[in-house]
Structure formats: C-alpha cells, structure tokens
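re the bet — no i am not wrong, look at it urself. input seq straight from the record:
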Amino acid sequence: MKEKLKTKFIAFASQKGGVGKSTFTTLVASTLHYRMGYNVVVFDADFPQHSLIKMKARDKAMVMENEYLQKLAYRQFTTINKKAYPIIKHKADDVLHEAQEFVNNSTIPIDVVFFDLPGTVNSPGILNALAGMHHIFTPISADRVVMESTLIFNQLLQDVIMKNGETSIESVHLFWNQVDGRESTPLYAIYNQLIAELGLKLMRSQIKSSSRFRKENEAESKLVFRSTVMPPDERLMKACQLDQFIREFTTIIKL
C-alpha cells in the first residue's frame, strides 16, 4: 500500500525584523515549486504588512513590463505544466487550521506549506503557529543585536515550546546569511561556539553576500533572484551558495 504523503509545514522564523524571513520563504518556495517539481503553498500570516502578497503583485507586474521575462515565464509555465504557487493571506491565530484545510481539500498533493509569520512572539497565535511547524529555520548575521534577539528566540522555542511536548516541531536550525568574505573569520568561530554551547543546531551552508542581487529589480533586467512567480537564476544561486543551502535544506526536512 502506498504511504500517504506527509505535507511538511515549514517556517523561516525570527524575532528580529529585516533578517530575511520573507526573502528565504520566497527563494526556497520558488526553487522547490518551479525548478524541483514539488507542489508548494505559502501562507502569508505576517500581519499587518503581508509583504509576500504585495511581492506577488509586484512580480506579476514586472514580468508583464519586461519582454524578456515574459518569454522566460511563458517557457517556464508551459514546460512545468502547472500554475504559480498560491500565496494565501491569513492571520497567525488560526493559520494552522486554515493550512490543514487547504491541504485536505487540495486536488493535488501538497509537498510543502511555507508560513511567513509575524516577527514578534507577542503577536496573537504566534506561539501556537510555531508549535505546529515541522521544521523552523532562522537566518542570522554577524551582528550583536541580531544574535542576541535570535538566541533568545531559539531558546524560547527549545525550552518553552518544544519541552512542553505539545508540538509538531522536529527540528530548528540556524543558518548564516549575508556572510561577507572580508569579515573576520574568528568572529564567526566565536558565534559558532556559542551556538553549540547553547545546544542549538547550525546549518553547514552559508549564504554569501553579493551586490549582484541588486540588479534583480532593474526594469530591463534579465536576472531573476527573489520572485514568487519564477525560480532564482542558477548563476545567482551559485554566487551566494543558495544551491548548497537548498540541498542541505531538503535533506533536513526529508523531502
């Protein structure tokens, strides 16, 4: 008898704003859905900004205004023979129930549901939503404020949510984002040691910083990186080592 597909509930989560939660939700969702053949759904529960809903509107407009991207998108969608993944606006307090209903009623099997959640644990329903994830990934950068906020957040997950037993969380992983090769290597070694001493998990993959990503929003650009309707350009993925991150990510969540 064929084993029933277990849909993965995933969140890129942090208590610190501006560290890349929505960006990584988009990058990974688009890579899995458009390039790797998985069926993805995204729930934008980051009230009140709902940045992914706005991003999808901008992405569609950008494709329509750029002749090169129009051709690229047409070729993509005729090749993979499926639509863009849905981004559904919802509030965090009952987003788990809404997501499960969507999965249960979907005419196609859903492999991964990504949740873009509020950046503060004080938001209504956020702790319950986090407890319902199967895997949580937290981007970090070598900044004291970011690190302090992130370590407090991850210890909350580990010591409060996971220890009470009423959780679906299988793993929580930190990963380095915007790593500048010119920065002091000992600084990362000190932070890595602290993360290990706190019993937190750190991914081997690191996302490198690159000025090339700024070109993605130019009107006549032929490069796509962060988009809800197309996968990131493979050259840009290699430049920042996102390709290595995706391989480790899919191994962790057993996709």
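see?? The chain has one domain: 8-252. told u. also The chain has nine helices and seven strands. so pay up
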